[in-house]
Amino acid sequence: MTGQDAILLDLTIPADGHWGHVLRQGQTLRIVDLEGRQAVDFLCYNALDPTERYNAADTMKYAGTIFLTAGHGIYSDMGRRLFTIVADTCGRHDTIGGCCSAESNWVRYGVDGTPSCRQNFLKALAPFGLGKRDVVANLNWFMNVPVGPDGTMGIVDGLSEPGDYVELRAEMDVLAVLSNCPQTRNPCNGFNPTPIRVIVRG
Ligand SMILES: [Zn+2]
User: Residue 149, exposed/middle/buried by CB under 10 A (0-12, 13-18, 19+)?
Assistant: First the structure.
């Protein structure tokens, strides 16, 4: 369906990079994990009224699972689809782990002043007039956060291979922002953050 659509944007985002873009309804966003095992932290908002934004809990409830894949919707806090996942060659993404921050790296690892997805989100949101109040629980593409039968939560090696991708179709005009995660202290990026590619078609 999207194969013949024009490529509107095609760029590589380096490790620790950030990106934000408004997609019009019907446009698609493909996020490619170029080298594999690279977490991509992601948030999205109604572009016309960003007080309506991604709601992790409702998205999980509607999907009936914490593991989103092709066919699932990415929902706002107003019960509307921001995106539909139309393709997913990886099959394992995270909805509960949230983003890394310098502060949480201090709490967890005792290191100060690290680069982080929270900082990248703030950089990506700033041109759109958004800031700290707008950073909510986020999605992590290609991040593997299994939950054991006893409730144990882990952050383990991602399952994405080089070239794996997710493709999202915008169901309204959507502001999408992402951070190409710089974390080096757990396996979410294979301890080696690498570039990703984003392609917008429409
Ligand atoms: Zn991160």
Answer: exposed
pTM of the model: 0.96
Ligand 1 centre from 87 Cα, in Å?
23
Ligand 1 midpoint to CA 191 (Å): 12
For residue 84, report the distance from its CA to the centre of ligand 1, in Å: 23
pLDDT, one tens digit per residue, over 42-99 is: 999 999 999 999 999 999 999 999 999 999 999 999 999 999 999 999 999 999 999 9
Query: Residue 1: pLDDT band by 50, 70, 90 thresholds?
Result: low
Ligand 1 centre and the CA of 4: distance in Å? Answer: 34
Rounded Cα distance, 152 and 95, in Å? 15
pLDDT at 22: 98
CA of 51 from ligand 1 middle (Å) equals 23
Distance 5 CA to ligand 1 centre (A): 32
Separation of alpha carbons 43 and 54, rounded Å: 6
